[in-house]
Amino acid sequence: MGARDNVGTQAKILQRLKINIHLSCHILQEKLIRISRTVKPTSSREQKRKRFDVSELHDPSAELVTGRASTSSGKGKNSDGEIKFGYSLVKGKANHPMEDYYVSKFTKIDGKELGLFAIYDGHLGERVPAYLQKHLFSNILKEEHFWFDPQRALIAAYEKTDQTILSHSDLGRGGSTAVTAILLNGRHLWVANVGDSRAVLSQGGQAIQMTIDHEPHTERLSIEDKGGFVSNMPGDVPRVNGQLAVSRAFGDKSLKTHLRSDPDVKDSSVDAHTDVLVLASDGLWKVMANQEAIDIARRIKDPLKAAKELTTEALRRDSKDDISCIVVRLR
Hints:
This protein is α+β, with helices and mostly antiparallel strands.
């Protein structure tokens, strides 16, 4: 076979290859078009769920904000409209995703109306506060002692919930503070907390702190009795083993032998002199006194506007942490 015959043969082979490639691309393109027509578009919310398995922990009846949003707010009221609430959450200036979750709602059980309010300020991830949002109140209400001994039920539910969190490896190594408030028939208030999220009640216009800030320097003896230590480095807050800035928390598996998760519990009757309740994370309380917060919440009658003003004012004062706030107007 001559050189010209070889060149002619190779040219024919190349031409056939080009035709086959063109046909293959055309067929593939048609298949892709058919697939795209049969697949339902995925919403941004669905995409979030696929990216973050922790959303399976979300309770649709509760309110939620995570690191995927920088702000959130809303409001609600009880069945007769006399008690109203508003909430506002704003990402702080710290360089980490927002990890705050909250609950704010009314529900009825056996003819009794319950107002359920909570803030969960997470750290080292959102899985623990997400779990608390879905499970803590339901665990409290499932306690057989709840209706006749709420304090006992709160303590038991907090401890059991923490043990469950520690037993779930998929919840990671992070943790969360918690402040929960349960309003019974609009007449009696039960508040529990671990960590430094706080609840403050207005009685006759005076700010009454319903929680105790669980900080390492105030519970040093308990930490040291458990084999831990409290660091106090210049320019930093006291920390458990040089790591955590609270002495009680849910989760935190690596530090749990030196931490507590039992809550402090306090109750109060709600009478004509009790008009406002404020729950907030430490992003607010680090830059604002209790009385200041109560004064703002009382001055602004709309609880949603009051909650927004509190978080906005905390930002003005250069709060670095995430800021979560719920205002309940009782009168």
